[in-house]
Amino acid sequence: MNIALWIVAGLLAVAFLAAGFSKATTPREQLKEKGMTYVEDFSDGQMKAIGVVEVLGAIGLIAPAFISSVTWLVPAAAVGLAVTMAGAVVVHVRRKEAFIPALVLGLLAAFVAIGRIWIAPF
């Protein structure tokens, strides 16, 4: 189970690092041009904040691989990312947009959180 949790956490870290970096550094209008129409519901600052939260969550998922004293970050980051994705699902459903990617990422983050809290803690 430990290996599965590390694999899922690593994949989530890559996905959230890429998505978060994009949201934090790309102007809102360019994100909208790329098909992320949900940005209409958020200000520039909110989009940047969401991006920063995703980048920090990604770092929190993999930090214990490099710093063994911060193992508590994995479940905390996973819970935070699951909550973030729950919010994303709500936004996409309300806008009648595809919500499955956000749902899958949220469920995978919840899997890591549950796994690291109860099933295979460090």
Q: What does this entry look like structurally?
A:
- This protein has 5 helices and no strands.
- It is globular, with a radius of gyration of 15 Å.
- 27% of the residues are buried.
- Strand percentage, roughly? under 5%
The largest sheet is: none
Cα separation of the termini:
12 Å
- The total beta strand count reads 0
The topology string of helices and strands comes to: HHHHH
- Derived structural class: mainly alpha
- Treating each run of at least 4 consecutive H or I residues as one helix, how many helices? 5
Question: Nearest-angstrom radius of gyration?
Answer: 15 Å
Poorly predicted runs are: none
Residue-averaged pLDDT: 97
Task: Based on Cα principal axes, name the global outline.
Answer: globular
**Percentage of residues in helical conformation:** over 70%
Question: What is shown here, in short?
Answer:
The chain is built from five helices and no strands. The chain has 122 residues and is an all-alpha fold. The longest helix is centred in the first third of the chain and has 24 residues.
Blueprint of the fold:
Blueprint: H1 2-25, H2 28-33, H3 44-62, H4 73-94, H5 100-119
Helix pairs in contact: 1-3, 1-5, 3-4, 4-5
Keywords:
mainly alpha; globular; 122 residues; 5 helices; 75% helix; single chain
